Amino acid sequence: MSLNDPIADMLTRIRNATRNRAKSVVCMNSKVCRGIADVLTQEGYVKGFEVHDDARQGTIHIDLKYGPRGETILHSITRTSKPGRREYRRVEGIPSPVQGLGISIVSTSRGVLSDRRCREERVGGELLCTVH
To answer: How many CB atoms lie within 10 A of CB 118?
Structure first.
């Protein structure tokens, strides 16, 4: 099976798992996917993640997070930059979804960062996805 867009695959797996109220989800391992999982953990959208290496690429096990009454914390996760149309933004052009209640995940020269960290470090890059 050939996988053309591992980022979209990861986001779809997370989206489907939260709709099914799963406790965790398994995604393919790559440097960008680990960065996205790290940003989601730092911003409080998921509990945490572990990287499991095998003979090939490895997997990322992401523990999903829900509210005290079982409500979803991760309401929407959408892919912005796609393989057919990349979207690059300067630091001034990075969106702040839901008036600051959501985050944008950006791939920069300093790694995968949230929109808040991009503004702190004054760096732009490829706008990967938005989460709220």
So the answer is: 22
